[in-house]
Specification:
By secondary structure, this protein is an alpha+beta fold. The protein contains 8 helices and 20 strands.
């Protein structure tokens, strides 16, 4: 059974379309992320599932049952917002107990439930403090505990880590993933942070303009993007356009101006000699070497135009030809491996690293 399913859901506000026939399916116990830029429809999707808004058309199902017309308080979901929405006049214990009290549990059972989630989110000893006496990370844990205490089948999280500083955000990402695995609860997580989605989610739906452009595991989304938008939004990517010169059994030669690039024959795509195609190449897939490497199908002679020190890695801008520039990222092993502007190198990469984008690159997205 699916925990959450949206079937051709559209939402129009005034004359503006926010969602357009969005279809997604979230498995029970899955950590599912909605990823996309601001204004793409992520939060609207969460509000529709929670019952805070109604879709203009389409159907929403929770645990196999349609929730059309079902008010928010009767839906088996709970929401954690970015601003936490804690009651300032209530203690940590009272904030967590608030939602459980609505279920009219006996006091001993209520106290036991609160104690259980307090231990789960590691808030022991803080039960009698007020929100203003807590750090940002502790407030976030209280909001999580309050949502979890009601034991919903689906937890909706609307960028809950957005207000935290970088280091605390990374710590809480690991905490959330640990918590989700321990509970086995379905998490539907909204974020615009690509790294956050890749690190936490079992599957990701990439949204833009109210549509799902691609849905898949983090590996599928990153390694095999379905469009230039997905490839550019998730991580850094080199894009270049060329004409297919030769189709061999397992590889395709693409001429980018005067430069020949070998790419693996794309699965499920029909390509032919003479066709113009777009290629995507991740910067970390390029190995820079002062001599050609025979184990790589592509060895492109290049000049280093720019070298940027980023601590753990170096980011290089390479001029391959008048028609082709590339960005490469190399792990910063030691000073002897660093390159300097003006230095001539070879940009070496495997044919399978040059990803031929499908013809739908500039067309319409598919369903999730």
């Amino acid at each position: 059974m699916l925990a959450v399913e949206l079937r051709d859901v559209s939402k129009t506000i005034g004359h503006q379309g926010v969602l357009s026939r969005l279809s997604i399916a979230v498995q029970v116990g899955e950590f599912f992320a909605l990823l996309g830029p601001s204004g793409c429809g992520k939060t609207t999707t969460l509000r529709l599932i929670a019952g805070l808004d109604r879709p203009t058309s389409g159907e929403i199902y929770l645990n196999g049952q349609s929730v059309s017309g079902v008010p928010p308080y009767q839906r088996d979901v709970n929401t954690v917002f970015q601003n936490y929405a804690l009651f300032p006049h209530l203690t940590v214990f009272q904030n967590i107990a608030f939602g459980v009290e609505m279920q009219r549990l006996a006091k001993p059972l209520l106290a036991s439930r609160v104690a259980e989630v307090v231990d789960l989110v590691r808030l022991g000893g803080l039960e009698q403090r007020y929100p203003h006496q807590l750090s940002g990370g502790e407030q976030q844990r209280v909001a999580l505990a309050r949502a979890i205490a009601r034991q919903p089948s689906v937890l909706l999280l609307d960028e809950p880590l957005g207000a935290l500083d970088l280091q605390l955000r990374k710590e809480m990402q690991q905490e959330l993933k640990r918590l989700q695995r321990r509970l086995g609860m379905t998490f539907l997580y909204v974020t615009h942070d690509q790294e956050e989605a890749l690190m936490m989610a079992d599957r990701i739906a990439v949204l833009q303009a109210g549509r799902a452009w691609q849905t898949g595991t983090p590996v599928e989304i990153y390694e095999y993007p379905s469009s230039a938008f997905v490839a550019s939004f998730i991580g850094e990517t080199n894009f270049f356009c060329g004409r297919i010169a030769l189709c061999a059994a397992e590889a395709v030669r693409v001429d980018v101006g005067s430069i020949a690039v070998w790419a693996d024959f794309p699965d499920g795509l029909k390509v032919a000699a003479g066709q113009v195609v777009n290629l995507a190449l991740r910067p970390e897939k390029i190995l820079l070497h002062r001599e050609p490497l025979t184990t790589f199908q592509n060895n492109l002679s290049a000049v280093v135009d720019e070298a940027v020190y980023l601590g753990t890695e170096m980011r290089y801008t390479l001029r391959v030809s008048l028609d082709l520039s590339l960005v490469a990222r190399q792990q910063n092993l030691d000073a002897g491996t660093r390159l300097t502007p003006g230095e001539r190198v070879f940009a070496c990469f495997l044919s399978r690293s040059a990803h031929i984008l499908p013809e739908a690159t500039s067309g319409s997205p598919g369903d999730a």
